[in-house]
Amino acid sequence: MILGVLGGSGLYDLDGLTEPRREEVSTPFGPPSAPIVSGGIGGARLLFLPRHGLGHRFSPSEINYRANVFALKSLGAQRILSVSAVGSLREGLAPGDFVLPDQFIDKTFRRASTFFGDGVVGHVGFAEPTCPAFASAVAAAAAPGGKRVHRGGTYVCMEGPQFSTRAESQLHRSWGADIIGMTGATEAKLCREAEVCFASLALVTDYDAWHASEAAVSVEAVVAVLRANVAGAQDVIRRLGEHVAKAAPCTCARAAAHAVITAPDAISAEARGRLRLLHGRDL
């Protein structure tokens, strides 16, 4: 079993890997954010990739999401956990809490969020964007850590890099959304197309801009809570392997079956090569 982890703000490395090594990976979509660190942990092989790059060099709009997911898939990742900092849109989701969202509202507009295009048209179902079996394993791994863990919820994915205005924050609350971040929906879409199980571990750092009795979100406040959250997230990752091994079966590995609708004789050799790892059986 091979697990992939996309680390977010504050989570740039992972302690406790046995026989760690760095993997330089090239992809048809360009380079990933950083070399991938692989090693053993909790009975599983783990592939760790910091989405913002070493030293946090890439903003949410600059991340090469396609290369990141493709690189993890190419090294054998069957499940990918996205760890990210988020703002809370609900009174009951406090800074320091963990949330495992199961829905997304995508408000991004400056980034590539599909492997299709450039001569190949494909459509995948996305009504349920996370893998329930994998999310259950993440929830079980998080339970012993002493954090409040909320299963389910809607994640608004905004472009950034600015935080929300107060009016935007109130609008998102009126939609019934629960948390807001800048990366989750893009990674969820690409994992679905890549037929990889996906789950999100969202670390609440602030109350966004809506809360009348709390200061508006600031980088200083986020970083202070983030340090404690990251330690808890590392513990979850270290326990995850044993719980994934007992996870129920799912259908993610066939999520993009029959997705390609372009006629086979209209697909170029270049496009076939670009998508062979992901959709070779349908090309």
Keywords:
Rossmann fold, alpha/beta, 11-stranded mixed beta sheet, 283 residues
Structure characterization notes:
There is one protein chain. α2 packs across α5. Strands 1, 2, 3, 4, 5, 6, 7, 8, 9, 10 and 11 form an eleven-stranded mixed beta sheet that branches. The mean pLDDT is 93. The protein has six helices and eleven strands. The radius of gyration is 18 Å and the shape is globular.
The sequence of SSEs as H and E is EEEEHEEEHEEHEHEHH
Count of runs of 4 or more consecutive helical residues? 6
CATH level-1 class: Alpha Beta
Counting structural domains, the number is 1
Q: Average the pLDDT over all residues and give the rounded result.
A: 93
Molecular shape: globular
- Strand-pairing-aware structural class: alpha/beta
Number of strands: 11
What separation lies between the terminal Cα atoms? 27 Å
* Sheet of most strands: 11 strands, mixed
Brief sketch in words of this structure:
The protein is of the alpha/beta class. It contains six helices and eleven strands.
Secondary structure layout plus pairing:
Layout: E1 2-7, E2 18-23, E3 36-41, E4 44-50, H1 65-74, E5 79-88, E6 98-100, E7 103-106, H2 132-142, E8 149-151, E9 154-157, H3 166-174, E10 179-181, H4 184-193, E11 197-206, H5 219-244, H6 269-279
Parallel strand pairs: 1-4, 1-5, 5-11, 6-8, 7-9, 9-10
Antiparallel strand pairs: 2-3, 3-4, 5-10, 6-11
